[in-house]
Amino acid sequence: MNIKEFFTPKRLLFISLFAVFAFITQRINFSALVGADNQFFTVFQFFGPIAGAFLGPIVGVVAVFIAEATDFLVVGKELTLINIARLAPMLFATYFFATINKTDRSKIFKIIVPLAAIFLFILHPVGSQVWFFALYWTIPIIAVLLPKKYSNSVVARSLGATFTAHAVGGALWVWTIPMTAAQWVGLIPVVAYERALFASGIVISYIAVNALLAFVVDKLKLEVPSDVLRLNRKYAIKA
């Protein structure tokens, strides 16, 4: 692959736009994480995963990583294991949301990630006591295994994406942040509430951004290749 041909000016423009908006949303805290000081879920949870749907899985992951790395450097976060580990969940969520279930390779990858998270969680002494907490992470697996007309829906992809992020984050969290079994049990209803909000936010963000981008592209009569910006005309604003 020719890097110069791949990273065209138009592609770099959209990568930059998504990275900037993702960086801004990371500055808005939504809720505190249990078990660690000064760690928060942010509005980025509602927006981050959709980048890959417009830019493609790989480019979307790159855009999200740029936003996360920029936030890391600009804020001057301490170089701790948990801060570094927190970069990973959204990258996996972005890939999940970006890929529709056409190929066995993408389906297998999206199943392996939560399965590995479940295994790592249960392998931990505390995680083994609350193994049922990891049942949340079967949701991405179910979303992938549904018939295509359901598994490729925005709702299924949003649920799969947010719970993939939760699976990766949870598996890393149990090994890096000391928490009791009681704390994990107490998180069960909180997770249901937060992830329902995140999934809803991803759905709304995707439809809204898709409509906005389609409107701008049509209004300005921009010629943007479909491999640079993937718009779903189903959600475009009709004239």
General description of the model:
By secondary structure, the protein is mainly α. It has one domain. The chain contains 13 helices and 2 strands, in the order ααββααααααααααα. It has a two-stranded antiparallel ribbon with strand order 1-2. A hairpin with a 7-residue loop joins β1 and β2.
Properties at a glance:
single chain; 239 residues; mainly alpha; 13 helices; 68% helix; 3% strand
Write down the secondary-structure element order. Answer: HHEEHHHHHHHHHHH
Helix content: 55-70%
Radius of gyration, in angstroms, nearest whole number = 18 Å
Instruction: Return the domain count.
Output: 1
pLDDT average, as an integer? Answer: 84
Class based on secondary structure composition and strand pairing: mainly alpha
Distance between the termini: 39 Å
Number of strands: 2
Strand content: under 5%
Q: What form results from the Cα inertia axes?
A: globular
Spatial strand sequence of the major β-sheet: 1-2
Give the SSE layout:
Elements: H1 3-6, H2 9-25, E1 29-32, E2 40-42, H3 44-47, H4 51-55, H5 57-75, H6 81-85, H7 88-98, H8 104-123, H9 125-129, H10 139-145, H11 148-151, H12 154-176, H13 181-219
Antiparallel strand pairs: 1-2
Helix pairs in contact: 2-5, 5-7, 7-12, 8-10, 8-12, 10-12, 12-13
